[in-house]
């Protein structure tokens, strides 16, 4: 056969081969791009599902606890009940296989430790008549020894230990009451209790034509009177409670009250509490009336609770108050009405599966915003206390409670602003709220947690907290002596599950403490959290240096949508002026963290956070009601962002370094954001930003470095001004300053920021730059700013030799060459847990609970 190339001249042949090579290179390039896109596509659309779309757990999911609950989407419930099958035998034939009873909700708790290894499970629907539908497909997951163990007894243990007689709501106090009554006059809570009870006795609801309009006040007074009666046993308090309830019994039920979940819960509690405490003082007819009103509340809410709360990531109002109030009402009448017993069982199983903090949080921090922990505090203490007493199992051995003391201490330090993430972060709260102090006190008394004891000894506002007063008076449990912060308290804490890192220069001296808080959360944005992945706040002496801005006036006004929870109001980044939507899809993730004595470090990845607009009906309706759109002009929309990794350091004691890796599919403008309570002094030539707090005598100097051209502007105006006329929380409407450093459009860039905080008249040192090396006092910082070159960062202290390295295969650590296991790992040489050592870390695997 004749070779066809023989018919062509050599030049033609060469040209053809060049064309073939081009085609081959094109194919290879496409393959590479496909692999790259595939790698990016492997990142889940969301780490957690807002409403469950897929069964959990599966082989790609993370187990947060052993035993793990089995959860399925509501769509899989095709009839009246579900039945679950769980086994280590894929045929489900072994003696150890578990076949659940039929259940009306979309969850199952094994209530036993699951042995290490592979587990198989399936589910099927069953009708009320007993007709079973085919089994679902079989799902698998693996239990490993590193999964924390926490097992609860089955519901029948809880049910069988409920006292047959009243009172049940506070049955966990009965064993200590006699001794507590003898010593109550010497108790610090005695005089406040007397003052509150007098206030309640003085109120006469009989003069009110619509006593239901006063349900919230009556709820508070019921608590005052019940505490006083429980301790004193004087008729005057019980008789007043009865009188108040009789005002409700003689009035027409106000459907507006029943329709408000908070007020309905308060109504159910005050009726149930009085019913129990004063049972013999009511007539049989009155008891039935009380029971009927409680049932009216239960019947109103149960259809909207069961099959919703177990598959929803976190329903604010329900977990804050409604869950507890309906539990308290149900336990009072569970033996008379099936609705109450059903809720009692549901609440027990739901708490086991999804509490104390969504079921996917073990770190002790509150995933739904630091300030909004306070709305959950009473329930977070009451429920495990009741369940522990009635089951004989300590529910506070759950990992979240074991870490709650350190969570309290670090995320909102005594005498300080909070870490600053989520609703209620404003400077109107310059120190922790009273209920936070009360929760810490209760934790200290109940568990002996040393952080909770230290925290409540300094932040002792619990002494004025009324809802927890009965426990302090009646439990007989003493506060442990707080000898100070635990000696081994870390300088920095990584709250892995909620996505925060808090680093402090000197937590033991709050007036001179430099505190850095960093947020990149797998829970995304929405609810009471903000669009603030990879955002940071910085405080000195508890006062803001740099902090998110805006005011929580209400949940849906223009200021809330365009400033307060908008990415514009956070110390993070905009891409072409676009931020992160209000969605659980807009998640971040802290992938690495070091806690050294001289270097605290975290790496946050917000590459998936800039993902369009919110899909949730509530936010869509909120924008619509304000006649606003989720538009580019308002900071919402799609972006070509591929990478946003922020490395952040506290170089002890007074310097912060931020190193941003930024990349997009096409050239974009990068808007780097910083907010301050005082005006910036800007030197645009050197990109130096200075703020001075003259009142507290400290200053901050931040300097930006990048290969890209940059323009810097600042404003003290919001996109939508807060409505000062509706201020109800003592808001300080002093205007903060918002700075934007806009870097010229490009596909890739790196931004290095060095911040120096100086107090008591000290001056920031001059940063001496030589190429990509920056000398800042005792610290040498080498940062690769050429985005075409591999990421590299090397930080070293010339005095103590503490060293951080990123992107070097063989960095020098303490005069020796260290061989990295992975080329792109972060490496730290520092004193860690009292010992000088070298640590290496690459990215922590995402803890996914939704679909892959």
TrEMBL record:
Heparinase II N-terminal domain: which residues? 46-203, 225-465
Q: Which GO terms describe its molecular function?
A: lyase activity
Family annotation (Pfam families):
DUF4962, Hepar_II_III_C
Major site of localization recorded for this protein: other
Protein location: Cell envelope
The Heparinase II/III-like C-terminal domain covers 490-698
GO CC annotation terms, alphabetical: cell envelope
Cite the Gene3D superfamilies for this sequence.
2.70.98.70, Chondroitin AC/alginate lyase, Immunoglobulins
Q: What is this protein called?
A: Heparinase II/III-like protein
What is the species of this protein?
Bacteroides fluxus YIT 12057
């Amino acid at each position: 056969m004749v070779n066809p190339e023989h018919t062509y001249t050599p030049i033609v042949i060469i040209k053809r081969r060049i064309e073939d090579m081009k085609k081959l290179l094109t194919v290879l390039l496409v393959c590479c791009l496909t692999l790259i896109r595939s790698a990016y596509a492997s990142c889940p659309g969301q780490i957690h599902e807002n409403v469950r779309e897929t069964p959990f757990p599966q082989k790609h999911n993370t187990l947060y606890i052993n035993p793990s609950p089995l959860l399925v989407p509501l769509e899989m419930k095709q009839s009246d009940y579900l039945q679950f099958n769980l086994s280590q035998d894929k045929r489900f034939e072994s003696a150890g296989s578990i076949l659940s009873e039929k259940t009306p909700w979309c969850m199952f708790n094994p209530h036993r430790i699951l042995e290490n290894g592979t587990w198989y499970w399936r589910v099927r629907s069953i009708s009320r008549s007993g007709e079973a539908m085919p089994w679902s497909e079989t799902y698998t997951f693996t239990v490993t020894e590193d999964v924390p163990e926490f097992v609860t007894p089955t519901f029948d243990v809880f049910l069988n230990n409920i006292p047959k007689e009243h009172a049940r709501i506070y049955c966990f106090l009965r064993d200590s009451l006699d001794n507590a009554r003898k010593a109550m006059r010497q108790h610090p809570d005695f005089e406040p209790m007397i003052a509150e009870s007098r206030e309640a006795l003085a109120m006469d609801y009989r003069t009110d034509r619509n006593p239901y309009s006063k349900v919230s006040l009556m709820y508070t007074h019921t608590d005052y009177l019940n505490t006083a009666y429980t301790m004193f046993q004087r008729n005057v308090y019980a008789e007043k409670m009865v009188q108040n309830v009789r005002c409700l019994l003689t009035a027409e039920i106000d459907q507006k009250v029943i329709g408000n979940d908070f007020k309905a819960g308060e109504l159910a509690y005050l009726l149930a509490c009085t019913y129990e405490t004063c049972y013999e003082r009511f007539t049989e007819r009155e008891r039935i009336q009380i029971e009927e009103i409680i049932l009216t509340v239960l019947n109103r809410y149960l259809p909207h609770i069961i099959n919703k709360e177990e598959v929803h990531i976190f329903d604010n109002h329900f977990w804050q108050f409604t869950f507890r109030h309906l539990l308290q009402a149900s336990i009072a009448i569970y033996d008379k009405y099936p609705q109450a017993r059903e809720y009692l069982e549901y609440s027990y199983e739901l708490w086991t599966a999804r509490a104390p903090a969504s079921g996917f949080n073990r770190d002790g921090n509150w995933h739904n915003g630091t300030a909004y922990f306070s709305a959950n505090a009473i329930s977070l203490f009451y429920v495990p206390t009741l369940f522990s007493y009635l089951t004989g199992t300590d529910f506070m051995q759950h990992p979240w409670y074991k870490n709650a003391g350190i969570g309290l201490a670090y995320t909102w330090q005594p005498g300080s602003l909070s870490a600053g993430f989520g609703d209620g972060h404003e400077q109107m709260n310059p120190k922790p709220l009273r209920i936070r102090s009360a929760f810490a006190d209760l934790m200290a008394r109940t568990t002996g947690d040393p952080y909770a004891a230290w925290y409540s000894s300094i932040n002792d506002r619990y002494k004025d907290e009324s809802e927890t007063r009965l426990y302090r008076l009646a439990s007989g449990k003493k506060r442990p002596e707080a000898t100070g912060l635990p000696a081994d308290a870390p300088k920095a804490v990584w709250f892995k599950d909620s996505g925060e890192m808090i680093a402090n220069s000197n937590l033991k001296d709050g007036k001179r403490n430099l505190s850095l808080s960093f947020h990149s959360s797998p829970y995304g944005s929405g609810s009471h959290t903000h669009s603030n992945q990879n955002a940071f706040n910085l405080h000195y002496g508890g006062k803001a240096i740099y902090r998110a801005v805006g005011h929580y006036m209400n949940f849906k006004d223009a200021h809330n949508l365009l400033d307060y929870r908008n990415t514009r109001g956070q110390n993070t980044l905009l891409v072409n002026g676009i931020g992160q939507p209000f969605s659980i899809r807009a998640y971040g993730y802290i992938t690495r963290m070091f806690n050294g004595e001289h270097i605290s470090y975290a790496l946050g990845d917000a590459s998936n956070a800039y993902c369009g607009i919110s899909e949730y009906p509530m936010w869509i309706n909120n924008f619509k009601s304000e006649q606003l759109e989720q538009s580019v002009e308002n900071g919402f929309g799609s972006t070509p962002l591929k990478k946003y990794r922020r490395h952040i350091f506290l170089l002890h004691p007074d310097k912060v370094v931020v190193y941003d890796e930024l990349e997009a599919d096409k050239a974009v403008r990068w808007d780097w954001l910083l907010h301050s309570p005082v005006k910036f002094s800007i030197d645009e030539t050197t990109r130096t930003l200075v703020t001075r707090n003259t009142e507290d005598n400290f200053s901050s100097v931040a300097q930006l470095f990048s290969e890209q051209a940059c323009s810097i502007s600042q404003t003290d105006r919001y996109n939508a001004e807060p409505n000062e006329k509706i201020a109800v929380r003592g808001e300080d409407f002093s205007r903060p300053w918002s700075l934007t450093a806009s870097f010229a459009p490009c596909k890739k860039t790196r931004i290095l920021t060095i911040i120096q905080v100086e107090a008591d008249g000290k001056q920031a040192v001059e940063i001496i730059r030589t190429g990509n090396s920056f000398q800042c006092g005792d610290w040498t910082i080498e940062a690769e700013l050429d985005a075409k070159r591999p990421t590299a960062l090397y930080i070293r202290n010339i005095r103590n030799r503490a060293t951080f390295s990123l992107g070097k295969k063989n960095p020098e650590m303490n005069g020796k060459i260290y061989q990295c296991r992975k080329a792109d790992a972060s490496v730290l040489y520092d004193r860690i847990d009292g010992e000088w050592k070298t640590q290496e870390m690459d990215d922590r695997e995402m803890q996914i609970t939704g679909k892959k």
